[in-house]
Amino acid sequence: MATFDCFAQEGNMQSFARVQPIDRRRAIVLAISTIALAAIAGRIAAGAEDPRAFVQSVGDRVVKVLQQKLPREQAEQQLNAVWLQAFDVEAIGRTVLGTHWKAANDQQRKAYMDVFPKYVAKLYAIQFSDYSGETFAVGGSSVLDAASTLVHAQIVRPDKEPIKVDFVVHADGQELKIGDVKIEGVSLLITKRTEFDSVVAQKGIDGLIQAMRAKAG
């Protein structure tokens, strides 16, 4: 979700006349920000009623970032914003770390959760760096349990077979969150857990965190 700076009032009563035009501009910015935040909240609320609409909105945002052909650093920042808003980052991070989460101390857990979102955003930026006109389309869905839905989608590629992508969506309070992504049936959670297990076995949890930081840049 976009963030907006809160502007503090400057000057005193004697300089009020001088800074009044700036304060007016700030008031306009704050008003626009409030409207924008309300609009975003409205879209999220609407998507929360329908997991399919929610996933489509996430896919549309990702495609919009890719279509801009931004420098990788800027693309990472925007993809990271999508990731943080739409995905259940903390639950995914804990699940991927598996039994090592319980073995980690508080300092290691904090360091891991600090770098995990940046690490995943970097992976997405690298994976999508060769974007060449792909589109995202949501199909059907199936209920997994009382709180979770599996949403079926495709990444449609020009002159190539589409890539099947399934999203596990669950309710997190009044919002929907993505808890796992399965590409051609392969779970992100399972894939990264296997990879992280291997790194921890060789280098320990601190070694894993260092490797993630190096990858995230």
Kindly describe this structure.
- The protein is α+β, with helices and mostly antiparallel strands and 217 residues long.
- It has two domains: 1-49, no CATH class; 51-216, Roll (Nuclear Transport Factor 2, Chain: A), CATH 3.10.450.710.
- It is 59% helix and 18% strand.
- A hairpin with a 4-residue loop joins strand 1 and strand 2 (148-156).
- The protein is globular.
Shape: globular
Mind telling me the C-alpha Rg?
Answer: 21 Å
Distance between the termini: 22 Å
Helix/strand order: HHHHHHEEEEEH
CATH homologous superfamily of the largest domain - what is it? Tgt2/MlaC
The CATH top-level class label of the largest domain: Alpha Beta
User: Structural class, from helix and strand content?
Assistant: alpha+beta
Largest sheet: 5 strands, antiparallel
